[in-house]
Amino acid sequence: MPVARKHLVDNSAPGCFHCISRCVRRAFLCGDEAEHRRDWVRDAIRTAAAAFAVDVLAYAVMSNHLHLVVRTDPQRVAEWTADTVTRRWAIAHPRTGTDGNPVAWSEPDLAARAADAVWVAKTRTRLGSLSWFMKSIKERLARRANRADRCTGHFWEGRFQSVPLLDHAAVLACMAYVDLNPIRAAIADRPETSDYTSIQDRIHARQAQQRAAALLTQPDAADLVPTLRHAAETARAAGPEAGIWVAPIERATAGHAPAIIALDDYLTLVDETGRIIRSGKRGAIPAHLAPILERLDLDLDAWLDLMRSAGSFLGGAFGRAAARAREAIRRGARWIVDVTRGLYREPEPTA
After folding, report:
1. Is the pTM of this model over 0.70?
2. 153 within a domain of the structure (yes/no)
3. Do the beta carbons of residue 163 and residue 45 sit within 8 Å?
4. Within 10 Å of residue 1's Cβ, how many Cβ atoms?
5. Which of 74, 185, 217, 276 is most buried, by the most CB atoms less than 10 A from its CB?
6. Is the Cβ–Cβ distance between 54 and 130 less than 8 Å?
7. Strand ranges (E), 166-294
8. Which residues contact 62 (CB under 8 A, 6 or more apart)?
9. Which residue positions in the chain have pLDDT lower than 70?
10. Is-contact 48 92, C-beta < 8 A?
11. Diameter of the chain measured on Cα atoms
12. Could you give the CA distance from residue 268 to residue 276 in angstroms, rounded to a whole number?
């Protein structure tokens, strides 16, 4: 039986969620002759991420559905000024021009809205809401696709699913699961070729930083054109995830110090897991994969089972037994069914 969103999402506290939404017209979201719509989907997610107090930790745009791993942050939106709230809402909801294309709000419109305390309070709540975040993405895409198809009616298959991820290991595991979607579906052979995924974005950013660092270590680095040298130094200093719009990997474990996993470890984890999935058999486990899972306190065999299987990371919530027990109490439920398939190595608590 579906659980009401208000019971799944606590808008007063940070939370991480696996969100899935399917197109009612199935293969015509991005498949067949509509491959160009993958750009539409990614642009809509990126626009919403720039407006809402919601971090996009991972995404995968598939032919008939969309996966997102997000982190809500009510404290961030509470600290925004009235002007910030107004400008962010304008990003997510541009005006419509006479030709049907979006146009930016005028400065007088922005000022008038920012001066309306009631409107600002209502909008502030919406900019911190997971439901409004997903509504912004889905409504934008539905309208655009319906115009392109010259039709009306539903574009998406009902409500989006949102599965709470109750601990850091659950978040990282779900991120890897989402990033591995193209490999699991056999439409890509490695993360670098997994188009329209967050893992590809992170890899490209990391490679750009590595190229900049390599350029500056060459023997003739001192002879580089000043503008080129400055660009390389800036890229090297900016960090491995500079320039990408998805949230840095550290946001997946926000509040945990020291960081559980670094970007390079995450890239290794996804890459090595993808190789095993692509091979179709377990084979030899790479020596540097097991230590990463041990640090997360996860079982290797269960990890591979989850990553191979479509439909994982669904259910009422995903996390350790203790976290599920706390979540059940918060909802006023007796229990939350365990769908982790033994991923966590810790023993289940006894009554």
Report:
1. yes
2. yes
3. no
4. 2
5. 276
6. yes
7. none
8. 29, 30, 181, 182, 185
9. 1-4, 6-7, 25-33, 100, 213, 215-239, 255-259, 281-285, 346-351
10. yes
11. 70
12. 12
* Rounded Cα gap, residues 344 and 346, in angstroms: 6
Q: Which residues contact 308 (CB under 8 A, 6 or more apart)?
A: 184, 277
Cβ–Cβ under 8 Å, residues 216 and 229: yes
Q: Rounded distance, CA 71 to CA 236, Å?
A: 28
Q: Which residues contact 293 (CB under 8 A, 6 or more apart)?
A: 269, 299, 300, 303
Nearest to 23 by CA among 132, 129, 136, 146: 146
Q: 60 has which bridge partners?
A: 67, 197
Tens digit of each residue's pLDDT (9 = 90 or more) over 241-281? 777 899 999 888 876 555 678 899 999 999 999 998 888 76
Residue 68's region, left for phi above 0, alpha for psi from -120 to 50, else beta, is beta
Name the residue type at position 277. I
Asked, for residue 52, whether it belongs to a domain, the answer is yes
Can you read off the two tokens belonging to residue 63? Answer: 């032919």
Residues in the chain: 351
Q: For residue 136, is it within any domain?
A: yes
- Token output for 266: 């995450």
- Amino acid found at 310: A
Which two structure tokens, joined as six digits, stand for 238?
């900016």
Q: Which domain holds residue 271?
A: 5-73+128-222+224-331
Tell me, yes or no, whether 292 lies in a domain: yes
Angle 218-266-295 from CA coordinates, rounded to 5°:
120
**What are the tokens at 136?**
């912004």
Residues in Cβ contact with 105 at an 8 Å cutoff, skipping those fewer than 6 apart: 90, 94, 95
User: What distance in Å separates the CA atoms of residue 65 and residue 156, rounded to the nearest whole number?
Assistant: 9
Find the CATH number of the domain harbouring 320.
3.30.70.1290
Q: How far apart are CA 82 and CA 268, in angstroms?
A: 42
Domain total of the chain: 1
Proportion of the chain above pLDDT 90, given as a percent = 52
Half-sphere exposure of 86 (CA within 13 A, CB side): 20
